[in-house]
Amino acid sequence: MGKGDRKTAKGKRFNSSYGNARKTVTKTTGAAPAPVVKKATKTASKAPAKKVAKKTVVKE
């Protein structure tokens, strides 16, 4: 039961045919969902990176 078997879904896919083992997808009738509207976002800039002060070592 593999590619060549026309009674299985795998065989139907290989043979490019449809049948009881490979049902076609039917579209449901009804209202289509409304398209998603993207909200306008403000371009918020990140806070500037903190600079790390170098530690000074006292040489004796």
UniProtKB/TrEMBL annotation:
<feature type="compositionally biased region" description="Low complexity">
    <location>
        <begin position="31"/>
        <end position="47"/>
    </location>
</feature>
<protein>
    <submittedName>
        <fullName>RPS31 30S ribosomal protein S31</fullName>
    </submittedName>
</protein>
<keyword id="KW-0689">Ribosomal protein</keyword>
<feature type="region of interest" description="Disordered">
    <location>
        <begin position="1"/>
        <end position="60"/>
    </location>
</feature>
<dbReference type="GO" id="GO:0005840">
    <property type="term" value="C:ribosome"/>
</dbReference>
<dbReference type="InterPro" id="IPR030826">
    <property type="entry name" value="Ribosomal_bTHX/bTHXc/bTHXm"/>
</dbReference>
<comment type="similarity">
    <text>Belongs to the bacterial ribosomal protein bTHX family.</text>
</comment>
<feature type="compositionally biased region" description="Basic residues">
    <location>
        <begin position="48"/>
        <end position="60"/>
    </location>
</feature>
<dbReference type="Pfam" id="PF17067">
    <property type="entry name" value="RPS31"/>
</dbReference>
<keyword id="KW-0687">Ribonucleoprotein</keyword>
<dbReference type="GO" id="GO:1990904">
    <property type="term" value="C:ribonucleoprotein complex"/>
</dbReference>
